[in-house]
Specification:
By secondary structure, this protein is α+β, with helices and mostly antiparallel strands. It folds into six domains: 75 residues; 105 residues, Beta-Lactamase (2-Layer Sandwich); 107 residues, PAS domain (Beta-Lactamase, 2-Layer Sandwich); 103 residues, PAS domain (Beta-Lactamase), CATH 3.30.450; 70 residues, Helix Hairpins (Orthogonal Bundle), CATH 1.10.287; 148 residues, Heat Shock Protein 90, CATH 3.30.565. Helices cover 47% and strands 25% of the residues. A five-stranded antiparallel β-sheet has the order 2-1-5-4-3, sandwiched between helices. A hairpin with a 5-residue loop joins strand 4 and strand 5. The longest helix has 47 residues. The N terminus is likely disordered. One of its GO terms (molecular function) is ATP binding. This is histidine kinase. Keywords: ATP-binding, Kinase, Membrane, Nucleotide-binding, Phosphoprotein, Transferase, Transmembrane, Transmembrane helix, Two-component regulatory system. It catalyses: ATP + protein L-histidine = ADP + protein N-phospho-L-histidine.
Length: 666
């Protein structure tokens, strides 16, 4: 701009010179030298040429200035388009130029160089460190590259990779500093994160209790952790670049197979196998292996972990032995053991359930399904016991009747106990059930025995006192019968007196133990004698007797008269159960267990199954004029002979009585 002003003043300067030459004082001299007109024309031409030349120069200067401004704008545009930081600093630290990336980095918006200084206050401390490196560049004249750290107000750091180059002026002096910078914060953080991750992984590798090993594709060890040395006894120096020496020879083929599977991209999880300690001691280990990939996705090795489960295997073995022992006890004991969860699902059922109750074990799915097999009168008490156990978490016992698969009721006693885990939470319940049918029967026999004892004592005290008046009454009634006009009532009285006398005789039989003599007898002949005595009574009641007595029955040891009394009582009961006639079947056969069975079956009215258990009790009878003593005496006689009586009956289907006696070996 100064050159342009000088050129603009040049024409005026020529005009002044021309006027000075052509002044009046100089005119005589000039006129004497040249013709006046010619000289004026020359001077005028010179002045015009000079003026035109100045105009040309001015136009050219303006063009150069425009081109310079255009180049400057283009250059700035190019520099602003660069994503890296670029700025020029004077030797005094003044910012002469900053590009857009640098402006946004320092202040977050586009600012000119003079306005940027105020915006760099937040990086003031970091910039002070930058000035130290600026001075170093000016002193040495060599470019300098280093990573500068700029701390933000929130305490976070931004990392910039800076290159500082000195700029030489026309006098070959360092007049300015060109600074190029690249924001590498993300890269640096990634490096730091990677370093932290690496340190974390290294810490995990060394602190994990599992043995970790890294193996290349050739099966050579590249890295192991400290746990590997503890578990297998080999140091890292002993293993590096060598095949694993812990694999037993007989398992080497298996190990090679799994290694190849992993190299093919498959993962192996929880493979339980055997490995050797350095001392030769075998170890149970759980192996997990996975392939190692490079950046291109190619498998370059195997990462394996081995967990020492030797102690666990030892405990499992002891547990299996213990479980087998207790299972053997549970499956061979007569008590029934059942384990079920809180939701009622059965998890264990001992085989004794099937042998005692008759149902297959797979029928017991849920413990609550068994309630329908419990006697209706006992279900509520069982439900209440279950509720009490769930609420109190205490052991409880309950007795109930359970329906056998054969259709009869079995008396059971169950004790239920909750099972808790280490935290005290109930996880299941265990029921131990015992068949107390025989116990109940023994208790009933004891009760009946006590009753019989009382009856015997009563009979012993009053039987003779009753029989003496009966004898006198019978004598007087017979005298009255011979002289009375109406003899109907005398006959009735004599019949009733005979009945009373029979009852007294049975009472005396209960009261006084009879001296019996057991002898070997044929049960078939005894039955034939009894049936011959009852044949006339059967004909009078329109009853047909059918016999099926096996030939060559084994003999029995018995008191013959007592046996006859038993068979007479049972056959008379059958005849009396068929007042309108029917069929009486008498059978005798040998059983496989060295026993003889005598079966007496009628087609009478039958007995309600619920009343059968009470048959044989003193004074309990199903007949209108019965006393209940006949069957009781018969049962006692059979039991004294080592046998038993079983009664089955259905209403309107008749009754079957089985007398089973021990037979002599042939």
């Amino acid at each position: 701009m100064k050159q342009t002003g000088t050129l603009a003043l040049f024409p005026s300067f020529l005009a002044v010179v021309a006027l000075a030459v052509l002044t009046a004082s100089n005119w005589p001299v000039l006129s004497s030298l040249l013709n006046g007109r010619l000289l004026f024309g020359v001077l005028a031409a010179l002045a015009l040429a000079a003026f035109l030349f100045v105009l040309y120069l001015l136009r050219r200067v303006r063009q150069l200035e425009q081109e310079a401004r255009y180049r400057e704008r283009s250059f700035r545009t190019y520099l602003d388009a660069i994503p890296d930081l670029l700025f020029i600093k004077s030797k005094t630290g003044e910012l002469l130029y900053v590009n857009q990336a640098a402006s946004e980095f320092f202040v977050g918006e586009r600012l000119a160089a003079p306005n940027l200084v105020a915006g760099t206050d937040r990086y003031r401390q970091s910039l002070c460190g930058c000035r130290e490196t600026d001075e170093l560049v000016f002193q040495t004249g060599e470019p300098l590259r280093r990573v500068e750290v700029f701390v933000q107000p929130d305490g976070s750091a931004r990392y910039v990779d800076m290159l500082k180059v000195p700029v030489v002026d026309a006098l070959t002096q360092y007049a300015a500093l060109l600074v190029l910078g690249r924001d590498i914060t993300d890269q640096k953080r990634a490096e730091l994160d990677g370093l932290a991750t690496k340190e974390l992984l290294e810490s995990f590798l060394q602190q994990t209790p599992d043995a970790i090993s890294l193996i290349d594709v050739n099966g050579r060890v590249k890295r192991v952790n400290q746990a590997s040395e503890i578990i297998f006894g080999y140091s890292e120096e002993e293993l590096i670049d060598r095949p694993l020496p812990v694999i037993p020879p007989h398992l080497q083929e298996e190990a090679d197979y799994y290694h190849q599977q992993v190299l093919n991209g498959k993962r192996i999880i929880g493979l339980e196998t055997i490995r050797f300690h350095k001392s030769g001691r075998p170890l149970h280990v759980s192996l997990s292996m996975a392939p190692i990939y490079d950046v291109e996705g190619k498998v370059i090795g195997i990462a394996g972990s081995a967990r020492d489960i030797t102690e666990r295997k030892r405990v499992e073995h002891r547990l299996r032995v213990s479980e087998a022992k207790y299972r053997l006890i549970a499956e061979n004991m007569t008590d029934m053991i059942c384990v079920y969860e809180e939701n009622g699902a059965v998890t264990y059922m001992s085989p004794s359930h099937e042998s005692i109750l008759g149902y297959p074990l797979d029928q017991y799915k849920r413990v609550y399904d068994c309630l329908k097999l419990i006697h209706p009168d006992d279900r509520e008490s069982v439900r209440q016991a279950i509720a009490d156990i769930r609420q109190t978490r205490e052991m409880a016992a309950v007795e109930f009747r359970f329906l056998h698969s054969g259709g009869h009721w079995v008396h059971l006693e169950s004790r239920c106990k909750p099972i808790v885990n280490e935290t005290g939470r109930v996880i299941s319940f265990m029921i131990v059930t015992r068949d107390i049918t025989e116990k109940k029967r023994a208790e009933e026999l004891l009760r009946q025995s006590d009753m019989l004892s009382a009856i015997g004592q009563l009979a012993a005290g009053i039987a003779h006192e009753i029989r003496n008046p009966l004898t006198a009454l019978r004598g007087f009634i017979q005298l009255m019968q011979s002289s009375a006009e109406d003899k109907r009532y005398c006959g009735i009285m004599l019949s009733e007196l005979d009945r009373i006398n029979l009852i007294v005789s049975e009472l005396l039989l209960l009261a006084k133990p009879q001296a019996v003599k057991y002898q070997q007898r044929e049960v078939g002949s005894i039955l034939k004698n009894v049936l011959s005595l009852l044949d006339s009574q059967a004909i009078l009641n329109n009853i047909q007797i059918h016999t099926r007595i096996a030939e060559k029955l084994p003999p029995i040891t018995c008191e013959e008269n007592q046996m006859k009394q038993v068979f007479i009582n049972l056959c008379k009961n059958a005849i009396e159960a068929m007042p309108n006639g029917g069929h009486l079947r008498v059978e005798a056969e040998a059983l496989d267990k060295g026993e003889v069975r005598i079966r007496i079956k009628d087609t009478g009215c039958g007995i309600d199954p619920e009343r059968i258990p009470r048959l044989g009790e003193p004074f309990y009878t199903t007949k209108e004029k019965g006393t209940g003593l006949g069957l009781m005496v018969s049962r006692r006689i059979i039991e004294e002979h080592g046998g038993r009586i079983a009664i089955t009956s259905e209403p309107e289907q008749g009754t079957t009585v089985d007398v089973i006696l021990p037979a002599l070996a042939g």
